[in-house]
Specification:
Largest interface: A-B, 31 and 40 residues
Number of helices of chain A: 11
Largest sheet of chain A: 12 strands, mixed
Radius of gyration of chain A: 20 Å
Radius of gyration of chain B: 23 Å
Shape of chain A: globular
Strand order of the largest sheet of chain A: 3-4-5-2-1-6-7-12-11-8-9-10
Largest sheet of chain B: none
Number of strands of chain B: 0
Order of helices and strands of chain B: HHHHHHHHHHHHHHHHHHHHHHHH
Structural class of chain A: alpha/beta
Order of helices and strands of chain A: EHEHHHEEEHEHEEHEHEHEHHE
Strand content of chain A: 15-25%
Number of strands of chain A: 12
Oligomer: heterodimer
Number of helices of chain B: 24
Strand content of chain B: under 5%
Helix content of chain B: over 70%
Chain lengths: 295, 470
């Protein structure tokens, strides 16, 4: 399992990094923490690079290194990386340019496998997409952005499961909300949900929603029964709810502000999803809690 | 769907989203091409205007890499029947492109020579420890140096000096936000102001000189300086005053930080014989620009300097090549060739006529009105496009607005330095912005004031000083 955690600034990224590392721990995953810096106009990119070389000779770090250093300190403070590396401090001099328009440093983790720190510059969606393709990540973890279309673009173009960390509060976070239906994707979502529940030692609320009187999420369905059996076997405490109404509204209502939602991605075609949107996208846009969309 | 996998559909959608401005540009171009062309405008001239519109969209939005935009401009001109492949190729490479190439390469050599330490000491010796004097000093030195060695080079040299001074004042950035803005903007705007002062201050000046030459006009390095440099000198104290009053620095005296900076500079490596030789070569280039540029061209002389640096082993070709943005050079070549096509097909004259038809009565009543229009349009385009590209495409049009081509051409060149409003207007802005210490909104806040004052000053300047010296 490989997880990509996107951080953006020292001030707002702590919840993302905290939850990201917790999830990585749950999956014993290889973690890469990435900071995507602002896109530089191509007109000046090479001159900016030249100026940054000059700044390094005056002991100034290139933009973004401070964010990686903050992430390193966070990992150190929480004992998430090897103690030998903590003693030597953030290895700025080992931040290497790998020729793929990114700078990176390798660290070895304690609670999960390797932890890498990466610095890229450019459009956030393009850079994350490229990194996911390059590294073959299973989950991408990002903080919720205020930018319009960001959630849409993440779901549409990033070829991995997406965890959006939204108003994450460790104190309040007490259940996994698992909306399921008869589609095969629900089984994968359930497996992810169980791992998260086990990591946090919390229970799962399974919810099936019957939309407009038509049972799209049939509780008696074989797939649903299999999921419940899987959860029972994992030893995670669970409750099962059946709701009627608009699935998006019901999921948001049930999530309240103290759960993490784990749900499958839409199985509509990308073209349809592009124009019509999807239920996971609507939930992602409207909810106030972390949400993991499993692809 | 039609046998395509979800992944390939998703990849296509991503491509289309990323390239949407390219798609829009092509659609707009196709629609315009299909429309009947206006009377009095040849088909070739109309096509060149359509290429100009689409190229501007592509340059502003950058949906495809700059070299691809350059190739698009060249191909569109050839396939559009504006000129033969040989004709377009001839217009593509000229002395202005040589200059841009030479100036980018000279920057690589100069930045690495350790002049920054000497400059830091020089500024502090002159200004002392008073913050307002330091801001004035940074602005003056940036302006004077950028007049001769190019704004991008000076911004790269001055930025670490400014940032070190800020860091030595306080390691908590929140406590020195205004001081940081004042010092960094003094560097940025100093570079912009100075870049208009001489032909070697920026590629756009050389592009304009090239257009003058194509129109049978001649302007030497000295003549340019006599016409423009006083304007640079006038702007320096006024802009420094506006900066200080917009971002009132938290510290009025920077005593201890200056002492720390002096100690740091004193510890840095001293000038070697090789550094001195690089200075001498640059002085030779500078003298060449002054005395021989009319004969050989500014670009040729800049490239001679580059040749001497390579020959003397002062810079490795790999280093030069790595830090020279060939895409930018190719793009400027392409925009210059487009500018030439706009001029040769009569499109420039037609566009100028449209402006005259629109504002003719105002231009007749108020002779300065044509200057004002040119300044406003050039300054606006510089802030969203880039100063050199603005001059390359606007130059041929503005030069047809009034009979005095030299006058209006110089107005265009000077106002193309008014890239005060955005971080993308000029490399100096982007370099300083990349420090992360100033915000894009700061450019608007300060740029609005300085832009307005500069426009007014230029209007007064060209309608008084130029009348006297002419």
């Amino acid at each position: 399992m490989k997880i990509l955690i996107a951080i953006g600034s020292k001030h707002y990224s702590e919840p993302t990094l905290h939850l990201g590392m917790k999830v990585a721990q749950a999956f014993n995953a290889k973690v890469t923490i990435i900071d995507v810096g602002e896109k530089i106009s191509e007109f000046s990119s090479q001159l900016v690079e030249l100026a940054q070389d000059q700044m390094e000779s005056w002991d100034f770090d290139p933009p973004g290194v401070d964010v990686l250093e903050w992430a390193f300190n966070y990992l150190s403070d929480n004992g998430l990386i090897d103690s030998k590396q903590i003693e030597t401090g953030f290895p700025k001099n080992r931040l290497i340019d790998d020729g793929e328009d990114r700078k990176l440093v390798y660290l070895s983790g304690t609670v999960c496998e390797d932890v890498n720190l990466i610095l890229r510059n450019g459009d956030i969606i393009s850079e994350l997409r490229e990194e996911v393709q390059y590294g073959g990540y299973d989950v991408t973890i990002v903080g919720k952005s205020q930018k319009r279309n960001m959630s849409h673009d993440l779901l549409q173009y990033i070829n991995s499961s997406i965890l959006v960390v939204n108003k994450y509060d460790t104190e309040k976070f007490n259940r996994v909300l698992l909306p399921i239906d008869d589609s095969p994707g629900s089984m994968k979502a359930a497996k992810y949900g169980i791992r998260v529940a086990l990591a946090y030692k919390i229970g799962i609320d399974i919810v099936t929603v019957i939309d407009n009187g038509v049972s799209t999420d049939d509780a008696d369905n074989l797939n649903v029964t299999k999921i419940i059996k899987l959860i029972r076997r994992s030893g995670v405490e669970y409750t099962q709810l059946e709701e009627k109404g608009d699935p998006v509204e019901k999921i948001i209502e049930k999530a309240n502000d103290d759960k993490i939602i784990v749900m499958r991605a839409s199985n509509m075609s990308p073209i349809k999803r592009y124009f019509k949107g999807s239920k996971p996208l609507s939930v992602m846009n409207k909810c106030n809690v972390p949400i993991l969309i499993v692809k | 769907m039609l046998g395509f996998s979800n992944l390939s559909l998703s990849n296509f959608l991503f491509w289309a989203t990323q390239k949407r401005w390219f798609i829009y540009a092509i659609i707009i171009g196709l629609i315009l091409i299909l429309l009947p062309h206006p009377q009095g405008l040849s088909e070739q001239a109309y096509t060149s205007i359509v290429i100009l519109i689409t190229a501007l969209i592509l340059i502003i939005k950058e949906p495809i890499p700059l070299p691809a935009i350059a190739i698009y401009i060249l191909l569109a001109q050839i396939y559009g029947g504006i000129d033969s492949a040989d004709g377009i190729a001839k217009a593509f490479m000229n002395d202005a492109v040589f200059f841009i190439m030479g100036s980018l390469m000279l920057a690589v050599v100069i930045i690495r020579q350790g002049w920054d330490s000497r400059i830091a000491l020089g500024i502090l010796k002159i200004t002392g420890n008073k913050t307002s004097n330091i801001v004035f000093g940074f602005l003056s030195i940036s302006a004077i140096l950028s007049s001769f060695i190019g704004e991008h080079t000076v911004a790269a040299i001055m930025l670490p000096i400014g940032m070190t001074l800020i860091r030595f004042t306080s390691s908590d950035f929140e406590k020195v936000k205004n001081l940081a803005a004042a010092i960094l903007f003094s560097i940025t705007y100093g570079c912009l102001i100075g870049s208009a002062g001489t032909p070697s201050g920026g590629g756009r000046n050389v592009i304009m000189i090239n257009y003058f030459n194509q129109s049978g006009l001649s302007l030497s390095y000295f003549e340019w300086m006599i016409k423009i440099y006083p304007f640079v000198i006038i702007q320096i104290p006024i802009v420094a005053w506006i900066i200080i009053n917009t971002f009132k620095p938290e510290y009025k005296i920077l005593d201890s930080s200056i002492r720390k900076l002096v100690i740091k500079v004193a510890k840095s490596r001293s000038m070697t014989g090789r550094n001195t030789v690089t200075v001498i070569i640059f002085i030779l280039v500078f003298l060449g620009w002054i005395f021989f540029s009319e004969r050989f061209g500014l670009g040729t002389i800049a490239l001679t300097g580059v040749f001497l640096y390579i020959l003397g082993g002062f810079v490795r070709w790999n280093d030069l090549s790595r830090h020279t943005h060939w895409g930018v050079i190719i793009l400027f070549g392409a925009t210059i060739s487009l500018g030439t096509s706009i001029r040769s097909t009569g499109a420039a004259l037609w566009l100028a006529d449209q402006v005259i038809m629109l504002f003719g009565s105002m231009m007749d009543t108020f002779p300065f009105f044509s200057d004002l229009i040119v300044i406003m349009i050039t300054a606006a385009m510089t802030n969203i496009l880039s100063s050199s590209a603005t001059v390359a495409v606007l130059g041929p049009i503005t030069m047809n607005l009034i009979p005095d081509m030299m006058h209006i051409g110089l107005v265009t060149a000077v106002s193309s330095a008014f890239g005060y409003f955005t971080a993308v207007a000029a490399p100096a802005c982007t370099i300083v912005y990349s420090s992360g210490m100033i915000k894009a909104s700061d450019f608007v806040r300060l740029g609005a004031r300085i832009g307005l004052v500069s426009i007014l000053l230029l209007m007064i300047y060209i309608n008084t000083y130029w009348l006297i010296i002419n």
